[in-house]
Amino acid sequence: MTQQISKNVPDIFWFIPTSGDGRHLGSSNQKRTNDFHYLKSVALAADTLGFDGALLPTGYGCEEAWITASALAPLTQRLKFLVAVRPGLISPALAARMTAALDRISNGRVSLNLVSGSGDKALLAEGLPERYLDKDERYALTREWVHVFRALLQGESVSFQGEHLSITEGKLQFGPVQQPLPPVYFGGSSEPAIQVAADYTDVYLTWGEPPHIAREKIERVAEQAALAGRKVRFGVRAHIIVRETEEEAWSVANKLIEKLDDETIRRAQQAQATRDSEGQRRMIALHGGDRSKLVIHKNLWAGIGLVRGGAGTAFVGNPENVAGLIHEYQDIGVDTFILSGYPHLEEAYYTAELLFPAIGKTQTGVLQVKESEKRLAVSY
Asked: Which CATH number fits domain 11-245+316-378: 1.10.1740.10, 3.50.50.60, 3.40.50.2020, 3.20.20.30?
């Protein structure tokens, strides 16, 4: 019998792998494409298993997040969709209309994750002017964008003239279901990002740094939000590998990176180091590309960050120990965990069936899932 932690039950989100999926990092072996039928399978599993929501990422290497969420919303019943969007690629007025429309279509199941970007050439590939490779410019644009976006969704008539954006007498004709507006999620470790988060964010996200390190950012955002007369909730974006035993979980973690060679790691680390991102710098500093330094905290593993940019750590272990790590994050104010695992379909089942009971979270509709159905999912 799994012992439950005496804590408030956190929100657990999953991830829709719109850039593809697989069993090994840095390898085309058993690679799954972002075929919509597969994305639908992941979304339906997350919905049925009782995950609170799912993140859909943005970027030119991903299937378009808003379109995908709009296609998945009618197929699901309770799953919330956290749609990532890059300010500057779309006007805040159009984004507000799209958000309100999807919120109505899904009956209040949409949130927005703002992604300012990391200042690399991927921004140019998406059509942003070169000026936004500069960090201060990116966050100045984000500040203006989210200011207009929030005002419109709250029913205001908006006239605004800024350095980056302008709008005259803008107003939504059809508002969202959620009031005062669908939640805005946002992450960033630099000082400009923290100021935007404090002034405009509903949920501030940090990548999975050890709790004692993440605490400093959380406290900084909370302090700045208080000065603005606001309160912000906090979340962690990380990966997860949970199994019945510690030995099995760590074996799966090692297999995930077993096909990575040193040259692939070197190239990936070099590319990540060129990004103008404080968060990415902090991720790299956790391990420095060294395979011998991947366990950075009890049950927290940085192996994914060897080749993957962004969220590079994973919760690894048996249900009790992973729940204990979640407990540590809750102690510093975190109430939302956005998790993912390779492959995402199978790992959604492992996470719900093993972790949920350990944190007191109830599964919905799959407690009696047939073994044949589980085998079918695993063999996709």
From this structure: 3.20.20.30
